[in-house]
Amino acid sequence: MILEIITPEKNIFNGTVDSVILPGKSGSFQLLNDHAPMVSTLQKGDLVYEINGKKETLLVDGGVLEVANNKVLVLAEAIV
User: Fold this and answer.
1) 35 by DSSP, 3-state: which?
2) How far apart are the two ends of the chain, measured CA to CA in Å?
3) Residue 39 burial (CB < 10 Å; 0-12/13-18/19+)?
């Protein structure tokens, strides 16, 4: 699936990932390929994405996300 992470200042990441773990308002959750469409808010916490077994972590300061057609769009308030 495609992950795109954007802040008001710049595009942080755009590429293919195997999974994403996000800090939701009600707790963290994971997205995998072919996830159902959804929109959610994010709280401050770790956003972890995995590419070929390697994990990368970013600290986001809240935001929103949209999932549709194997694309995850994260509009983060800031990357801390």
Assistant:
1) coil
2) 25
3) exposed
Query: Beta-carbon neighbour count of residue 9 at 10 Å?
Result: 8
One pLDDT digit (tens) per residue for the chain, 80 residues: 999 999 999 999 999 999 999 999 889 999 999 999 999 999 999 999 999 999 999 999 999 999 999 999 999 999 98
State the greatest distance between any 2 C-alpha atoms of the chain, in Å, as a whole number. 30
Pairwise CA distance, residues 37 & 8, whole Å = 24
Amino acid at 61: D
Query: Whole-model pTM?
Result: 0.94
Q: Rounded CA gap, 8 and 27, in Å?
A: 24
Delineate the domains of the chain, giving CATH numbers in brackets: 2-76 (2.60.15.10)
